[in-house]
Amino acid sequence: DSVCVGNCQRMYDGEEHGRFMEKLEARIKNHDREIEKMCNFHFQGFVDSITELLKVRGEAQKLKTQVTDTNNKLQESGKELLFEMEELRKCRLQQRNIAATVDKLTLCLPVLEMYSKLRDQMKTKRHYPALKTMEHLEHTFLPRVNPFRFCTIMVHNIPRLRQEIKEVSMSGLKDFLECIRKHSAKIGETAMKQVSVIPLLCIIVCVVRKPVTIISRVSDTYVNPTVHKRLQT
């Protein structure tokens, strides 16, 4: 920088300003010619590039239009695809729900059948089988379906049903004992008749099994008139 400043100062001091300006003007013209040559050399390429760019612009516009149309068609097709996918998702969800429902029903049906069997046994007054069914229902079947509400209702009903069976059984027992008390005389008479038949049956059995022994006993009976009279009666 100090060298340039010194040269400029010497140029003005030596009155060479005009000469400097002439050389500077000549140098500028020389550069202008070189620039013009360079521009002329590259001008045709520039024009060709502009022409190609205009063509590309037209093609780009066509391509943009095609891309826009394709995008619109894709959007329309995508809407249908999305709708079908949503329907498919709903169908699969329904399928899973149906499969889960079938599994739960398969698990619940034996419980309901067992409970229905229990109610039928209670209606027909088969109390002992009803108690066995209730035990299986309470300890085997109901724990499998514990989360369901009907299971909770059944669990709450089991003590009431057991008490109902107990009351019905006690009532039947009381009626049976009362019936025995009313017909005790007739029952005793029938029992005495059955007991009186037993000695004769014993004699018949002994005849079949031990004929020699029974013949001797029969002879003793004819000798003993008391025994003979008892056998006749």
TrEMBL record:
Domain Exocyst complex component EXOC6/Sec15 N-terminal: 23-192
InterPro entries the record matches: EXOC6/Sec15 (IPR007225), EXOC6_Sec15_N (IPR048359)
Keywords, ordered alphabetically: Coiled coil
Residue ranges the record marks as coiled coil: 21-80
Organism lineage string: Eukaryota, Metazoa, Chordata, Craniata, Vertebrata
A Pfam short name: EXOC6_Sec15_N
GO biological process: Golgi to plasma membrane transport; intracellular protein transport; vesicle tethering involved in exocytosis
Domain of life: Eukaryota
Name of this chain's protein: Exocyst complex component 6B-like
Cellular-component GO terms for this entry: exocyst; membrane
